[in-house]
Amino acid sequence: MGLLSSVFKKNVSEAPQKPAAPAKAADVVQKVETTNKEVKPVVDKISVGYTHLSGCTGCTVALADNYGGLLTLLDRYVDLKYHLTLADVRHIQKVDVAIVEGSVCIQDKLAVEEIKETREKAAIVVALGGCACYGNITRFSRGGQQNQPAHESYLPIGDLIKVDVYIPGCAPTPQMIRNVCVMAYLLLKGTKEQKELATKFLTPLMNMAAKGTSACFCELMTEVINQGLCMGCGSCAAACPVRAITMEFGKPNGERDLCIKCGACYSQCPRGFFNTDVVSEYEAINEAIMAALQ
Fold this sequence. Notes:
It is a single chain. The chain is α/β, with parallel strands linked by helices. It has 13 helices and 9 strands. The protein has helices at 2-14, 25-35, 58-64, 68-77, 109-121, 130-134, 174-189, 192-211, 217-225, 235-239, 264-268, 276-280, 282-292, and strands at residues 46-52, 78-83, 95-101, 104-105, 122-128, 154-155, 165-167, 245-248, 251-254. The strands form 3 sheets. Strands 2-1-3-5-7 form a 5-stranded parallel sheet, sandwiched between helices. A two-stranded antiparallel ribbon has the order 4-6. It has a two-stranded antiparallel ribbon with strand order 8-9. The chain is globular.
């Protein structure tokens, strides 16, 4: 192919050429403007890292389930620095936002070191999923497995480091993960109006992180049902991954023995942790997210 190309170029160069027509002034100006045009990136990306600890990788699957939305995030807004599954870099780096999936096995020295290093190198730490936020099913681990008999105690990451934002659920919905990523970008890089919207959206998730590392159906009972706020929509029952919630006479009923404390029911409830500031700005927040993903 290279030989044919060189022969073709030689024949063309030896062929008699017609004299070029004199260039018009307008053409010269247009050519100069075209050649001097500077190509700039679409936006100034934020750096994101993804630390994967003890979990089932379901949160990574939920992230990937955004499909084209994930590609848009990676193309325009997010520079993914490291990720055990989606990137060919595994060591922890300095980033704007660190997303953590899974709880910490305190018998695993490397896991303890990784979560502490994540906190040191990230401006914002996000706990993704029930295991990272509340311990989830790993709280019930008793160890004694033949291949890893010493790995028996697990803690949510908030018991070891300061966490800034929770995205609870088992696993969180792809849309919720996507929305938090967009809002994190707008909070760090957006206009004044966008930062205000992002703050309203993220504040309830920040409040959940500040509240602690325990959540179950009890939160729904004390903060929603007992306050007369439950409208019987069934979102909590639909979100529960272990079917610990059933609808009885139009209201949710929780089975304490089945609950794994993942926080999925409380995070899914439309009258749960999302406050009135977010509800009143729902349309503006949704429009900002959709515009970012166009």
